[in-house]
Amino acid sequence: AIDIIRTHAKNTFERSRFNLIVTGHVHIQDDFEFKNGQREARSINLGGWYDTPCALWITPESTKFEQL
């Protein structure tokens, strides 16, 4: 399933410009940084609420998971 998340992020990155894409519903937590030429991007999948409940904090300084 992680391969599906990462492939989706790369394909979406090809069609539109973004630095960060946040997805969910797949129930696997993933934080993946990748490059296409000079452009860099990050794909974060939130994971499952029941297995590892957490919040995603996005601030100007950082983007990180915090376990609840």
Q: How do you describe this structure in short?
A:
The protein has 68 residues and is of the alpha+beta class. It contains 1 helix and 5 strands; from the N terminus they run αβββββ.
Please render the helix and strand layout as text:
Elements: H1 2-15, E1 20-23, E2 29-36, E3 39-46, E4 54-58, E5 63-67
Parallel strand pairs: 1-3
Antiparallel strand pairs: 2-3, 4-5
Report what the structure shows.
A 3-stranded mixed β-sheet has the order 1-3-2, with helices on one face. A two-stranded antiparallel sheet has the order 4-5. The protein is about 20% helix and about 45% strand. The protein has about 70 residues and is of the alpha+beta class.
> How many beta strands in the DSSP annotation?
5
Strand order of the largest sheet: 1-3-2
Largest sheet: 3 strands, mixed
| Number of DSSP helical runs | 1
- SSE run: HEEEEE
Helix content: 10-25%
Radius of gyration: 12 Å
Low-confidence spans = none
The end-to-end span amounts to 24 Å
Q: Proportion of β residues?
A: 35-45%
Q: Tell me, what's the shape?
A: flat
**Global mean pLDDT:** 91
Label the structural class: alpha+beta
Descriptive terms for the model:
two-stranded antiparallel ribbon, 3-stranded mixed sheet, 21% helix, 68 residues, alpha+beta, 5 strands, flat
